[in-house]
Amino acid sequence: MVLERFRLDDRVAVVTGAGRGIGAASALALAEAGADVVLAARTEDQLREVAAQVEALGRKALVVAADLSDLDQVAALAQTTVDAFGQLDVVVNNVGGSMPKEFVRTNVAALEGAFHFNVSTAHALTRAALPRLLKSEGGAVVNISSVMGRVSGRGYLAYGTAKAALAHWTRLAARDLAPRVRVNAIAVGSVATSALEIVTGDEGLTAQMEANTPLRRIGEPDDIAATVLFLASPAGGYLTGKVLEVDGGIDQPNLDMALPDLGVPE
Asked: Is residue 256 in a domain?
């Protein structure tokens, strides 16, 4: 029964950045597969909306409004999860991001900030969760990286560098934690979330992005959520240290297309 391998009955997952977009869709996918979910993000109202949808699926949801750029707060999610549910089986490190800036405006603080928000947060939560993940029968970590970690694009120096680091962190952590905890990542392509509104709000940029994508469409959060479920569940039980490219088939070395407002260095 292959479909049974996608079940997560009575497992417990923590999802960061779960108030909207990929995080919310991932939390709902895990709940639909049978998991109880801890939902963490900054905006409580958004989290409560997602929690209501989780509960409508017959699973439990715990809302944790927190500043996930604070490493102490993100690490505390592990103990909060155990206190509420008595276990922790799946970690989805989805929080991250960085505003596009051209090179001349990307100072050291901006570069370090991108690394902190995209890599250090994942490291802090995974380390804090590790004792419980080791006790799980199927401990799994899923990191949300980006296509910008392997291709170039003007304005994405800090973000792309951080996401490339997260992808390699995934490979290294997987080797350290095998065989008891699996660690994988998803290199996400263009997905219709609030972070992409600069593109989806412009018909010309949307058309250009679709033309650069072999599948000729911008992805949906559910496209990523389905992959999160695969990697978190027994269905992905023979994968670790892998970065799955869920990007509509992008294979070009650069995506210099958007962000026309970026200045040209003098």
From this structure: no
Say which CATH number the domain at 168 has: 3.40.50.720
Number of domains composing the chain: 1
The per-residue pLDDT for 255 is 66
Q: How many Cβ atoms are within 10 Å of 176's Cβ, its own excluded?
A: 9
CA nearest 27: which of 123, 81, 92, 96?
A: 92
HSE on the CB side for 204, CA within 13 Å? Answer: 4
> Is pLDDT of 201 > 90?
no
Task: For residue 17, tell me if it sits in a domain.
Answer: yes
What are the strands of the beta sheet with 243-246, ordered from one edge?
61-65, 36-41, 12-16, 90-93, 140-146, 182-188, 243-246
Residues marked as catalytic = 159
What are the tens digits of pLDDT across the range 74-130? 999 999 999 999 999 999 999 988 888 889 999 999 999 999 999 999 999 999 999
**CA of residue 251 relative to chain centroid, distance:** 21
